[in-house]
Amino acid sequence: MRNLVRKLEEDVAGIRIDIAVIKSNYMTKQDPGVFRDELKGDNSTPLEEVRKLNVAISDAKNAIIFWCVSAVIFAQIIPTLPAILKILFPS
User: Fold this and answer.
1) Which among 33, 43, 53, 56 is least buried, having the fewest CB atoms inside 10 angstroms?
2) For residue 22, what are the CA distances in angstroms to 25, 28, 31, 46?
3) Do 84 and 62 have their domain in common?
4) pLDDT tens across 28-45, in order?
5) pLDDT recorded at residue 66
6) pTM higher than 0.85
7) Domain containing 68: what range?
8) Same domain, 28 and 64
9) Are residues 4 and 32 in the same domain?
10) Which of 46, 84, 69, 25 is closest to 54 using CA atoms?
11) Count of domains in the chain?
12) What SS3 class is residue 82?
């Protein structure tokens, strides 16, 4: 009987921890209204929001393309760097 009570106490302690995590991390009933107010704060239309999102996506794509091209060029230069340095700085 004592073992069962001890196990129940451990389970209740675990449930308390889980509930505390849920309360701290998950959305409450009031949260959607707060997010809605934040979205309407700049008085932009949904079309303007989509345009802003498209610009952000385009910027991200450009950054990825720039990174990939730079990586390829840099990978080509690194092996030839000693020869380039010998030409520029003969000793």
Assistant:
1) 43
2) 5, 10, 14, 32
3) yes
4) 666 666 666 665 656 667
5) 93
6) no
7) 44-91
8) no
9) yes
10) 46
11) 2
12) helix
Q: Is 47 left (phi over 0), alpha (psi -120 to 50) or beta?
A: alpha
> CA 28, 34, 40 angle in degrees (round to 5)?
150
Instruction: Read off the tokens for 61.
Output: 């794509």
Of 1-15, 20-34, 54-68, 71-85, the poorest mean pLDDT is in 20-34
Q: What is the DSSP letter of 26?
A: S
Identify whether residues 90 and 50 lie together within a single domain. yes
Structure tokens at 41: 């704060």
Look up residue 82 and give its two tokens. 């000693």
User: What pLDDT shows up at residue 30?
Assistant: 62
Rounded to 5°, angle at Cα 29 from 23 and 32: 110
User: Do residues 10 and 50 both lie within one domain?
Assistant: no
Q: Please compute the mean of the pLDDT values over residues 4-18 and round it to a whole number.
A: 89
* Total count of residues recorded for the chain: 91
